[in-house]
Amino acid sequence: MSSKNQKNTGLENSRMLAERFEFRDIRPEEGDQAAQIELICFPPNEACTEAMMKERAEKVSDLFFVAADRSTGKIAGFLNGIATDEGAFRDEFFRDASLHQPDGKYVMLLGLDVLPEYRGQGLAREIMRRYLEREQANGRTAAVLTCLEGKIGMYERMGYENLGISASVWGGEQWYEMSHPLNG
Predict the structure, then answer these.
(1) Positive or negative CA dihedral for 110, 112, 116, 118?
(2) How many angstroms separate the CA atoms of 53 and 95, rounded?
(3) Rounded Cα distance, 21 and 44, in Å
(4) What is the rounded distance in angstroms from the CA atom of residue 184 to the CA atom of residue 173?
(5) Cβ neighbours for 174, distance < 8 A, ≥ 6 positions apart
(6) Cα-flanking dihedrals φ and ψ of residue 45, to 5°?
(7) pTM of the model
(8) In what order do the strands lie in the sheet with 142-147?
(9) Contact yes or no for 85/106 (Cβ under 8 A)
(10) Is 146 in contact with 178 (CB distance < 8 Å)?
(11) Which of 11, 39, 66, 152 is most buried per CB count within 10 Å?
């Protein structure tokens, strides 16, 4: 398929997803729902706690982006993070929403979650695309995330560069740090 056809297919998929889902910031009362989704999408050792998810929904809602199913009103997936002037990922970002610096140059992405019944439709890619587009418009320099080795290829297809093994040891796992330039 030519790159023009791929772009047209991507635009059409984006339009279809916009018809089915509302893309927006989380509402504070949806913190419980996000916490439940986190437990479905990540194993117990990797999932953030209910308290962590609720705190992010309340304190960093502008960096907690959801896709809500228009037919049910329920969250189908989300991407959340915090802003900072630090360029490298550290585990404290998961635990402490007070580390959020609203004017920070970098966005540390803490979790991309899509419920199993919504996977395989391009929703994760669309959430990421919209999130990065918005944060680029907000003047951020880069988005940084960590992932397990098996997810490196997925994030590379989304435009991330693998920076190698991360200092993060969240959940007792070996993570890889990935960065996506936005501005700068």
Answers:
(1) positive
(2) 9
(3) 28
(4) 31
(5) 148, 149, 165
(6) -70, -20
(7) 0.91
(8) 21-25, 64-69, 75-84, 106-114, 142-147, 176-181, 161-165
(9) yes
(10) yes
(11) 66
Q: Which residues are paired to 162 by β-bridges?
A: 178
What span, in angstroms and rounded, lies between the C-alpha atoms of 174 and 141?
A: 26
Give CB contacts under 8 A, 24+ apart, made by 12-16.
13/122, 13/126, 14/126, 14/129
Place of tokens 């809602």: 61
**Measured CA angle at 37 (ends 97, 63), to 5 deg:** 35
> Along the chain (184 residues), what's the average pLDDT of each consecutive run of 10 residues?
58 89 95 96 93 92 96 97 95 95 97 97 96 96 97 95 96 96 85
DSSP string, 79-146: EEEEEES--S--THHHH-GGG--TT-SEEEEEEEEE-GGGTTSSHHHHHHHHHHHHHHHTT-SEEEEE
Pairing of strands 161-165, 142-147: unpaired
